[in-house]
Amino acid sequence: MSLLSVQELSVSILSDDGAARELVSKVSFDIEAGKTLGLVGESGCGKSLTAMSILDLLPKPQARRSHGKLIFNGETISTAAPSRLRQIRGKNIAVIFQDPMTALNPVQTVAQQIIEVLNIHFPKLSRRKHRERALELLHEVGIPAPEERLAVYPHQLSGGMRQRVMIAMALACEPDLLIADEPTTALDVTIQAQIVRLLKRLQEKNGMAMLFITHDLALVSQLSDHIAVMYAGKIAEYGPAKDVFSKPCHPYTQSLIAALPGINSPAKSPLLALEGQVPAIENMPPGCRFANRCRHVANICHTEIPQQDVNTNATMVACHRWKEIKQ
Amino acid sequence: MTGYFVRRFLLIIPTFIGITLLVFAITRVVPGGPIERLMTQIQLGGETGSLERSQGGGTLSDEQMEELKRYYGFDKPMLSSYAIWLKKVLQFDLGLSTRYQDPVWQIIKERFPISIYYGLTTLILTYAVCIPLGLAKGMYHGSALDSWSSAVVFLGYALPSYVIGIALISMFAGYWDIFPLGGFISDNYDELTLWGKASDIFSHSVLPLIAYLAGSFAVTTLMMKNSLMDNLSADYMRTATAKGLSRSESVRGHALRNSLIPVATSFGSNISLLLGGSFLIETIFNIDGIGLLGYEAIIERDYPIVMGILVISSLLYLLGNILSDICVALVDPRIRFGERSGS
Q: For residue B258, which residues of chain A lie inside 8 Å, CB to CB?
């Protein structure tokens, strides 16, 4: 049994004209305990909405989960009472966000913000115990001189240090699942590598599962056990990381991988870019959402929604023609 | 940061000199000063009792003029008489009123209780109403409460206070006769019991207070509402929810304090309102406050009183500005005045 099972999850937003538009459409995936699922896709494809809807952190009242079932540890959390959901948040499932500059409260010290989580979920422990745990956490996420850092405010820390504080906060109650929503996007490249290594190390140490959201395909291939590739609110391809990466079946995944600049490609050679635009949300095509940019497009792609096929490597592909176009 | 505030306090001195020197200079050049007024009075008196005068008209002799100028301090050049005035101010001597011949400080002091009563009540009621109302409007943005309170608050803001004052008087004091027409206390105030005194002051102050308050809600309420809404949609509020806080806990623990920052900033400058008092409202309600005193002093060219009120109000304003800075530094740890950021 998987730790988290997401079944046919849809997220709708209310647009200005009052109509509900489905931004995430019937997305399904599973996360095994202790494993990592990488959720990849370009900006606006709905990967963050998917992640936020797991803990019901969607911006209200504009966005809401309109369909689907979430099962965490055998418990259906999609219909759980708000009070039960609050118990799960921060304790069983924790989140780290994209921008550590704004995700921390600017007028509270690091200690206050870490101890707050402990206070919510372990109110019976003494203040001293909370402080000791906060210190231990800062040490664990590799913040030098943690004793001094407890008393500082977020603006006194660098971006990388702030993200470490966010991670310390998320790990405070040793969650079973960590949702990392583009945790390295706002950081520069050298810091990105450090944060990814840190997450990997902490994951192995605590044995927690991770949902890692990113648009960085190379990053996710190193980090994940499974990869789900999202395009325009739907999952295009989903399977074991090495299979998806080495033998991509969906034309979108193929283009994504082809667009990665290789270390051996000659300097200043033009980067491969996918032609065309993602269809606008108000006129999603009735058939395959990738049809207008696909090299292998056929008539059926414009009229019928592709079924989710499972290929020999247990990879799920949502494409009419994947068997014909296999590389 | 201490150095910054010491510097700010020292800067009061040149600013204060600048303000008073400017107004002092204006009092010297504006026509209709005390000597001219005296001369017109003598002229008018001369016309009515012209038989007693041997020399025609009511003009003064040169000697008398010199004496008058010396009396009012107009015989010396402007800067040196300003220096004399400033020296007296430093000894807490604001001079004599040219109209009443009483010490200026005495006259102003008599009006303090009334002005402070209205100023303080307005200040307290403004914050007591605006902060909770702004919070409620922010949390239930777009609700009926939000729209209706906005309509009321903006109506009060748009109507001039004297219009509201006159409307209130003609309705509640003239037509229905619920509240007294004006004044601060009744004529029989001294005979009343303690309870009677309190309710007497209260019934006299209801209408003027409404006139004062009507326009003062809009700014602070809207500031509070907008600032709360900004903070409610901030990323750290989502972090708070992700930690497991309920909505009310996260509003209380995170958004509330942060949205009070701009409101706290405006607190210092509101201190000067304590002694402000609108002369229009004081005139309408016949309240003997500082606003009315200042207005009359300007009309009557009673310059010692004008300068006296200026000294007090400018000092309050300058101190209020520093108080604002101190408030900001207290509530917002990101603000460190006079230091390099990032240190």
A: 105-107
